[in-house]
Structures are given as structure tokens and as C-alpha cells.
UniProtKB/TrEMBL annotation:
<keyword id="KW-0456">Lyase</keyword>
<feature type="region of interest" description="Disordered">
    <location>
        <begin position="82"/>
        <end position="112"/>
    </location>
</feature>
<keyword id="KW-0350">Heme biosynthesis</keyword>
<dbReference type="InterPro" id="IPR013785">
    <property type="entry name" value="Aldolase_TIM"/>
</dbReference>
<dbReference type="GO" id="GO:0015995">
    <property type="term" value="P:chlorophyll biosynthetic process"/>
</dbReference>
<keyword id="KW-0021">Allosteric enzyme</keyword>
<keyword id="KW-0150">Chloroplast</keyword>
<keyword id="KW-0149">Chlorophyll biosynthesis</keyword>
<comment type="pathway">
    <text>Porphyrin-containing compound metabolism; protoporphyrin-IX biosynthesis; coproporphyrinogen-III from 5-aminolevulinate: step 1/4.</text>
</comment>
<dbReference type="GO" id="GO:0004655">
    <property type="term" value="F:porphobilinogen synthase activity"/>
</dbReference>
<comment type="similarity">
    <text>Belongs to the ALAD family.</text>
</comment>
<dbReference type="InterPro" id="IPR030656">
    <property type="entry name" value="ALAD_AS"/>
</dbReference>
<feature type="compositionally biased region" description="Pro residues">
    <location>
        <begin position="82"/>
        <end position="91"/>
    </location>
</feature>
<dbReference type="GO" id="GO:0006783">
    <property type="term" value="P:heme biosynthetic process"/>
</dbReference>
<keyword id="KW-0479">Metal-binding</keyword>
<dbReference type="InterPro" id="IPR001731">
    <property type="entry name" value="ALAD"/>
</dbReference>
<dbReference type="GO" id="GO:0006782">
    <property type="term" value="P:protoporphyrinogen IX biosynthetic process"/>
</dbReference>
Amino acid sequence: MASAAMLNAPCNIGAVKFEVKLKPSPNLFCARPSVKLNRRRVLTIRASKEGHDNGSSSGPLRKMGLTDEECEAAVVAGNVPEAPPVPPKPVAPAGTPLVSSLPINRRPRRNRRSSVARAAFQETNISPANLVYPLFIHEGEEDTPIGAMPGCYRLGWRHGLVEEVAKARDVGVNSIVLFPKVPDALKTSTGDEAYNDNGLVPRTIRLLKDKYPDLVIYTDVALDPYSSDGHDGIVREDGVIMNDETVHQLCKQAVAQARAGADVVSPSDMMDGRVGAIRAALDAEGFQHVSIMSYTAKYASSFYGPFREALDSNPRFGDKKTYQMNPANYREALVELQADESEGADILLVKPGLPYLDIIRLLRDKSPLPIAAYQVSGEYSMIKAGGVLKMIDEERVMMESLMCLRRAGADIILTYFALQAGRCMCGEKR
Ligand code: PBG
């Protein structure tokens, strides 16, 4: 029975039921005992002629045979009805050592014995509603494959993107986040294209909202796709990233996105004080209903490599270590958490995901706010590469990695696997 080898994760989206079904592995099959443990016990009672002939009582019970009293009387008289015999003890393979059983009263394996028990006691579940699909867009008509991210494309904003969103919605993934590839000619040192109301992102948001009014659109708030320096902020001539001046630009960017119809603006820049400033700017323009998902703990990580290739957004010089966090730091995440909470963030994000599970758990335990995890490009590409090389089972590793992010405390997960995982949860195979 394949169910023994399934990782069951039932979940609901509205009235639709989803169950995570992963390919059974040969190992799990080997672990199955050869004898069925859960035999159905059937009590068979032969109907007596007497019962049928007796016309003194009527109703459904009479038609089935003996009355309860007659059955009890038969058993009391020693006339026990037939039932399947006690099943024989399953035989161990020849050579199995004969030992007396361990004197332990706690055997956790009892609760893992069957797929039904495992599903009943499963502590974490995942559904397509937990996923946010990051999508790369560009001005072109065609979709361009991204070399370092197999299966990902820079999508034409007018066609490819709209089709991809439709596919995601089909499997219950109704949240996306947009990342633009901006033409070099529009990049400047102050990134002003970021708040052009007719720029690629605002235009795309308007198109998507027109087609899918209930689609939830997250946007990235940071200057790097628009910066000729490839940094998230304005760079002074001595290389310093200017904090408050950058925040001024980010506020204008967030307002432009909100004006176009964004539901959640997501500052990923790591400047100080940007959440409070963006909140004030949104409110001043009448966008009280627009949420802020703050990249609270964003680390200066090498796992972003494929993403920067996708957007051609590598810093032209230096690195991002004066604003993104040191991967060696844990307590520092609490400093960022306190700032973002007090400045009014609605959702707190940790990035990258899998190497930073401890940070996800930290924020989950320290804050009542929803937590997001970003399974970044490098994490995605490693799983893809391992799958292509047949070193790992891509689909199982994908689903396990997402489940682990949930277990660590993430409510939502930004992942390039969103569509593939959504299909998997719907039982679709493609
Ligand atoms: C930049 C930004 C980055 C990512 C999302 N927003 C890269 C960076 O900080 O250089 C990375 C996402 C990924 O690697 O998947 N604002």
C-alpha cells in the first residue's frame, strides 16, 4: 500500500482539500512488515430459520436474524459465533537473535506505526495558501530562461507573466511577489525609476489587478534593480550607503506601488528606520490598508547569487555587508525585530530560509506577528541541480524543505517552487 510511504499533509483552501503526496521511496517499502497488522474483524452470525418464521415481532431487526437477546443467550449457552482466528505471530527472518524485550514503557514508534496514525499526529501542515510565488519580469515579449535557476524565466510582463499567474492560481497559489529586470539605460545612482508610476512594476500591477482583482500582490521595495551601482541604496562617492536619503526614495517607491494596487509592500533594503517612514508615507497618501512585510532579518548571504544573475543586479563594487546582516549573528535579529515591530510592520521576514531556521524560530517565539521565510535563489538552484543530477529526489526534497520552514515557524514562504509545490499538493504531476 503506497500510503505507508506517503508524507501526508492534508490541508484546506476554502472548500478544496489538498493532500501532500510524495513519491514512495524503496526504503520505506522495505520497512513494511509482510503480514497485515490491521485485519478487519468481522462477526458472522448465521440467521436461524426460527427467527425468520417467527411472525410475533416485526421491524428491521427481525428481518436481519436473531434479536440481541437471542444472540446474548447463544453466547451465554456456550454457542459462540464464528470469527476469524487470532492471527499468527509474524515470523522473523532466520538468524534473528532471540532476545527478551527491552524493559521500556515509552516506545515512540507506536505512534508512527501506520500512515493513519502518522497523519493523525502530524504537527505541521502546508497548503498552497502558505506560498508566495516570486516572479521575474521584463519589458520583452518573450520569456527568457534564467541560466542559474532551471525552470525560472524572466517573464514578459504582458503575456508570460499573466499565464504563469493563471497556472499558480489554478493550484491555489494566489500570492505573488514581483522582481523587475530594469533596462540599464533607466538605472541611475539615485534609482529614480523605482517610483515612476508608469515603470515596469506599477504597470504590471495594474495589468494583473485588472485581470485578477483578488490576486494578492507583494512588491519588493529596494533600489538595487534601479541603481547603476547595483546597491539597495544611494552610494556616496566614498562608498558609504546613505541611509536616510535612501529611505526617502523607498517611501516614494512604496507609494507608487500602492497607488498601482499593491497589497503588500516589502522593503528588502535593510536601511534603518524604513518601516516607520514607509508606514507614514503610505498613510499620508491614504494607503492605510496596504500592508508592510519587512525583511527583518536579511543576511549578507552568498545564497543570493542566482537571483542577482537573473536581474543583473550584482553590486558593481563592494558588497552589501554594511546593511545586510552578518550570517554569524543571532541576537542582532532581535534588534531588527524590535525596530520593525515598533515601526508598524505587519509581517516579519527572514532570509535566506533553510540555513536560517534558528532565526525563523527566534522571531516566531519572540513576536506575535506573522512570520515569512524566503527560500532564496541559491537554495532553489541547489535542489534543482541535485535533482537534475539524480543525486536527490527533487520533489521530495522540495516538499521536505518547505515543510521544515513551516515547522520552524514560518506562516508564509516565498519560494520559486510555489507553482511546482502547489501542483504537488493538488496531486498533479507534470
Ligand atoms: C534585493 C533582493 C535580493 C533578493 C531579493 N531582493 C538580493 C540581494 O539582496 O542582493 C534575493 C532573492 C533570492 O536570492 O532569491 N533587494
